[in-house]
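Posted in: Protein Modeling Q&A

I'm a second-year student putting together a small comparison for a lab meeting, and my supervisor asked me to include a predicted structure for Acid phosphatase. I've never done this before, so apologies if this is the wrong subforum. The sequence is pasted below exactly as I got it from our records. If anyone can share the structure token output, I'd also love a short note on what stands out.
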Amino acid sequence: MVIFLENEDEGNVLEDTYMGTTLTGQGYFMSNYDGVTHPSQPNYIAYISGSQNGCTSDSNINIAKSNVADLLESKGFTWKNYAESYPGNCYTGANTGTYYRKHTPFISFTDISKNSTRCANIVPATQLATDEAAGTLPNFIFYTPDINNDGHDTNSIFLGKGIVGAGQVDATAYNHYSSLATVESIFGLGNLKLNDATAPIIPFVCNAASATSTTTTTTTITSTNKSATATKTSKTTTTKTITTTASTITSPAGCAHSECSTGTALTSDCSACATAVCAQDSYCCATSWDSTCVSE
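Accepted answer (user: helix_wrangler)
Welcome! Here is the predicted structure, written out as tokens:
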């Protein structure tokens, strides 16, 4: 589950004791995570498509390009965008009440907005509780707060329990392309061959992605400004199963980086990682396919 909050200065967030001390201690704090640009909408577009795709403002835009929903569906995974105050029925207006289209990126892609079946995956946020109760949560969830709850005019929040390395600070330079690349690796989607193809993958999702027969949802809280960012794993929805042997792990074909999809058997400490690019990929080599991590 991915939740985007609106831009708030990192310093303002961290001044709050609960945000800056309590939750950063529970979460995985990425101190050098940046948005892609300003204003808001291009960041949302970049997150789900690997590029701004010509989006430079918050005005309505219609994009005829591929996005993460295409990758998910091609691999048999389900998705939904739950949006607070969304009126439903594939509404394409700029705003109504406290709902703003600019924060609901899937509606801006014509292969979704012009396809009633796919557009039905954009639903009011109230549907989330209904789907959870019915056991029909999709594999991938993008949650859009409305203008009253998005942190822009209220505050920002971290979610923290249950993640790998709680309390750690990661100073790696990440952005929204890294978040997209991380989702692509979790589900074994490949990539969109844009900025997501080379973005560093965030390592905190090791347990969520790697444990055999694990059922998890990964929840990311982020902001379009330079942000204090943290993540947790929470309620259940099926991800993927990884089969391992006693001493070696084989990189799956769906790994986001092509160098990791060659089927090379890696030792449990990854010392046999085949290429320099792969060796630098902490998700494919040093984390996800580490037998210790897989067994957790």
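A couple of things worth pointing out for your meeting: The chain has two domains: 2-241, 243-296. The chain is about 25% helix and 15% strand.
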